[in-house]
């Protein structure tokens, strides 16, 4: 078993459509998933999700309060559905988080430790959201980190570029999907 895991984060159909992330990102993530599976690297999906009515979202949380309004009419199970081009296999875990970081309010760390994972490879949207928050927390938890820059996206390309070229490399390694899959 590999001590590396690929994290596919917030690649939910509802979020991708509201985010405007195009097929280029999902195609890159799909390539990373196929490569991981071919090398027996565990693929772990992370979705943001809440109970009906989202009681976990405080009015004090500016970002999540706005999202609560935006996704109010979507049933929690529908909101958490992963994009059809990226669906997990039956044996691949789906971790539900309650905040921005993949670790926040989830059992991700327990799962990674039980699989003896020491290195995580990050993909997802948004670069300035789940990717940044997860990278920072994973570094504090002593994981080795790789970020697949072209398998991440942000609403603002300049923010994505700044993070992937100036910030992420201070706590991990930044690669393209092609570089990682060689």
TrEMBL record:
UniProt xrefs under Pfam families: Isochorismatase
Any GO molecular function: hydrolase activity
EC number(s) stated in the UniProt entry for this protein: 3.-.-.-
Isochorismatase-like domain mapped to chain residues: 4-179
UniProt entry keywords in alphabetical sequence: Hydrolase
Classification via InterPro entries: Isochorismatase-like_dom (IPR000868), Isochorismatase-like_hydrls (IPR050272), Isochorismatase-like_sf (IPR036380)
PANTHER family (alphabetical): ISOCHORISMATASE FAMILY PROTEIN YECD (PTHR43540:SF7), PEROXYUREIDOACRYLATE/UREIDOACRYLATE AMIDOHYDROLASE-RELATED (PTHR43540)
The protein's name in its UniProt record: Isochorismatase family cysteine hydrolase
Species of the source: Chitinophaga sancti
Biological classification of the source: Bacteria, Pseudomonadati, Bacteroidota, Chitinophagia, Chitinophagales
